[in-house]
Structure formats: structure tokens, C-alpha cells
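Lab notebook, bench 4. The sequencing result for the construct came back, and we need a structural model before the next group meeting so we can plan mutations. Quick request posted to the team channel:

Model the 3D structure of this chain.
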Amino acid sequence: MTATAAGMLIGASSDFLKRFSPFNRMEPHALDFLAERAVLAFHARGREILTPEMGQPRHFHIVQRGKVQARQFGPATVTDYTTMTLGPGECFPIGAISAQRPSTNSYVAVEDSFIYQLPAEDFLKLMQMSPVFHLFCTQYIASLLNQSRQQLQTSFAQRAAEQQTMTTPLGELVKKDAIFVTPGTTIRAALEKMSEMRLGCMVIVDTEQRPVGILTQSDLLSRIVLPAIDLQRPISEVMTRDPHLMPASASAYDAALEMATHGVRHLLVTDGDDRLKGVVSERDLFSLQRISLRQVRAGIEGAEDVEGLQRASRDIRQLALNLIAQGVGAEQLTQFISALNDALTRRIIDLAAARHDIHGIDYAWLAFGSEGRHEQTLSSDQDNGVIFVSPPGADKEALRKRLLAFGREVNENLAACGFPLCKGNIMASNPELCLTFEEWRGRFGDWIREPDPQALLNASIFFDYRVLCGNERLGDQLRTWLNNTARANTAFLRMMAVNALQVAPPLGRIRDFVLDDDGTIDLKKCGARLFVDVARILALRTGVASSSTVQRLRQAGAKMGMQAEEIAALIDGFHFIQLLRLRSQHLETEHDSPGDNRINPDELNELDRRILKEAFRQARKLQLRLKLDYQL
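Done. Here's the predicted structure in C-alpha cell form:
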């Protein structure tokens, strides 16, 4: 072959590789190295390319054209759980060649295929010379997700240029030296300093300059002016102890979520030794945002009627869209949406409680489903209920009647604010869902003892609960009882596992995806639900109290001895599906629109198609673990 012909082949290889991740981001010298050493080989349909019996892989493979089926070694029959299909741009076997061990899969050409082969020794050299390739091989799906977020941010480049990114570290937002006083400073001296420096708050630190308290302008009236406190008293007597702290490395988003969750307006930023570095306020975080957190919080807290809360609901949505545009991750986004929706719901509850005779009733407002899991998207209906205490001698039905009237108004006002009434009547205004602790325990116990299809469906909804308002101890006590009871009933958990396996990831054996008749995939039913259902079972089995899918996977996975890398890949897969749902929903104008959770994979770019396929593979791995655990 002439030098010219060889150069043309290398150029063609390089052009092809640049179409796919991670090669499109690799350093030029590393990409040249790969293109020069990769050899294109032909594999006829039905040919085995790599099997465990062949021993340690001698080549790293990149599919150039055709299809390759990866089949798990061991099972006698081929099922959706033991196979996956690789297409152009996809590689194998990453884990085996990195660890220099035999592959655990067999790879067979299911079409006439052309595949680049890179010698194993060159693969290892490439990992050393290219940080991008090394990250890809060691954190496969996380690396793809990061690139997808970068693409999304690029598509919103103009908006990102107009607004300061929410991923900015807090340390970069602190522009002035920290101003503080010590606990023994008099109130008068502290107030004079606040006035002189035009501060909205004063931080109190110990001798090591570690924050121990804070006094804000909003504290002055209730703590100093009205009680007529002697201004010569030490400031430690009126300060708020244990103020909210965040490290300088935390992001603006982290601070925003903390403020939204706890309803505070100032966060103290600390250095690596926990010493005060400065103060970040809502104004600092959101001065460049079109819709500010302060506006949203003020709109919620100051709303005296449904009309005011409707405006706040629209602002929550707009703020969430700004964060999507800035590339904030799915877990943070759903937490942020949930935190603000929680504040909105609590305000609705407060307004309704003032108009209803529920004073003195020991109760808790329960959120179920996605809200109970902190996983609300921009399209969620309402799922809620009430748990209450009926003291000895009290008229239980009279208490229930009062709570039902209260719940009905809350449900109607939530609907007016964009959270549709639940079509299945899973709402606090339903007498079947306004129950005492004993009644809820009896209901849960019936479902566990007799797990018929309806009972399993109920468990999948109601077991994902959390207390949104009221007496949290009622929810905690019910959770402890539920976990102990379910964990002891292996037959119930096995039936839940059977139910969780009814829907398989929409991966084709030959085609990338299995589509519904309309050419789309339901990301809620065939994506997120797969992770949610298995995580619920693992949590019940291991006694994990959290209702969050991600926390259930992290905590239950650790208790079961799963590798950290495996858990991280599962969570990344779940996050990407959630992110696709959010990106799809932001194009809609109303909650709960019919197409909110549907996507057409053909409309995704090549990178997102590839990540979606990997996310579904992670769901399949999770289901396979359940299938093997319960021998289904």
C-alpha cells in the first residue's frame, strides 16, 4: 500500500471516529494514534468475534458498520436479560481488556459487519496518553452523561452567556472579606457595625473564626425591638445558633437548594478548615436570573389566595427551565422542583387550615408517588393522603369529616396551581386515604399478607410516601412498622419482584429500541419505573427508610455489597432518563400533557441515543439482579 493510500485510510478512520463519543473529544495526538493503529476487519454474519473461551482479549473493537450481539456467558437460552446489541461507534470489551481478563460475554456478528481492531497493548497506551479516553473506559455512562450536559448547555449558549451559571463554586461568589463579631460583642456594637457596613446580617464566630451564629435584619424586630432587649447584652443571647453552612467548593445550585428547602436567605461559606470565608445571599445567587429564588419564595410566602400561588407555580416552572438550560443534573433538578413545590403545597395547606376547624388534631399530610420520592418533574399530578390520631374517647368519624373537608380544599387549590386532580382519586379528600395510624397499618398489612394484583399496585404507590406537613413522627413510626413487616414476608417481596419484571427495557435484539405503535417510547412506564420498582423492593428488603429511588439504590446497594461503580452506573442511567423526561416536558405548556413522557429516539442526537441505550441496559442489569435473587 502506498503512503498516499495509507494516509487516506487513516483519514477516513479519523473522520468516522469523530462522529462518536469519546473519540470526538479525544486529544488530537491520541485520536491520530488510534486511527493509525486500528485495523478494519470484516466479520460475516454469525461469526463469533470474541468469547470467554478465547481467553484474554487481544483486541479492542469498535463497530464501524453492522450489528454485534453481546450475549451473557452461561445461560442456555437467549433472553432480553442476557443479550444486547451494539451498533456503529460502540465498543467492546471495555471492562475485560482494561482488567486484562477474559470477557464474560460472547460477541457475535448478527449482520455482515466491519469492525476496527486495536491491539490490546495499544489500547493500554491510549488510556495512558488520553485522559478523555481513560475517563470513558473507567466511568463509561458518567462520561457520556457529562458530554450530553455539555451539548445541552451549548444549545443554550446565548442564555448561558446572559446568566451566571448555577455550577459556579460559592468561593467565586464571595467578593468581600468576611465581616464578623464574637459572641461577647454587645448587641449595640454589632448593630452599629451592620449599619456602618450596610450588611443584611452579622455573623458571630468563635476564637478559631468558625461560625457559631447569625443575626439577620429580619430578626431585629422580633428579637430586639419588640422585647426591648438591653443593647448592652451580648449578641450571643439573640443570635440564631447553628447557622446554615456550606463549603466554598459547593455550587450556587447547592446553595439555592439549601435556601429553597429551609427557607433561609443567607448561607455562610467556609474554607477547608471550617473557618468563615464569607456570606452568600439570595441576591448574590440570583441577581442575574430572570426569575429569582427570592421572587419565588416571596411569592409563595406572601400569597394570600390561590391567584398569588398560581403566579408562584408559574415562576417555579420558569426557574426550573433556566436550570435545565444551564445543564444542572437531573437529580438536582428534581430535588429543586420538589423543594419549591413542597413550599407551595405547605402554603396551600396553611391557607386552607386557617379556614377549617382542624385546630388541635394531631395529623400529617402525606405525599405519595413521585412527590413522595422527591422525584417530581415538570408534569406531575397530585398523590396525597392524611394520617391522624384519634385520642381515646374522641369521635373518630367527626375528626375524619373535618380533615376531609380540609383536604378537599387543598386538593382543589393544588389543581388550580397546575397539579391535576388524580384520576385514580389518590387524594386526601378521599375517605379511604384519610386514616388513623392503626387504619393505615391495617391497610398496609392486608396488602402484604394477600398480595393480589391490586394490592401490589397499591404498594407501588403508597409505600413511596413522606410527611410533607404536620407530625413527622406519625410517618416515621409507620415506616418502621412497614419495613419490619415487609422484610419478614419474603412471599410478598417475591410477588413484588414478579410485578416489577412485567415491563422490560425497550431494547431490541437487532434494532436499538423497541417502539410503541406511534414510534415513541414512554420514558415513565418503560424507563424510570424500572429503576423505581426495583429500588423499592431492595429498600424494603434491607430496611432502608428513604423513599428516594437514588438513596434507596445507594443505601440498599451498599448493604447488599454491590460495587460502588455498579451503583453509580445504575444511578447515572436513572438520572439520564429523568433528564430526558424534563427536557421533553419543558416544551409543553401544561402539567400532565399526554405526550409529556414520550420521546422518539430517532429525534435524539447520536450521543443521547447511545446514552439512552446504555441507561436501558442498566435497568436491565437491575432487573436481572432481581430475577436471579428470587429465581424468577
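The longest strand covers residues 59-65.
Will bring this to the meeting.
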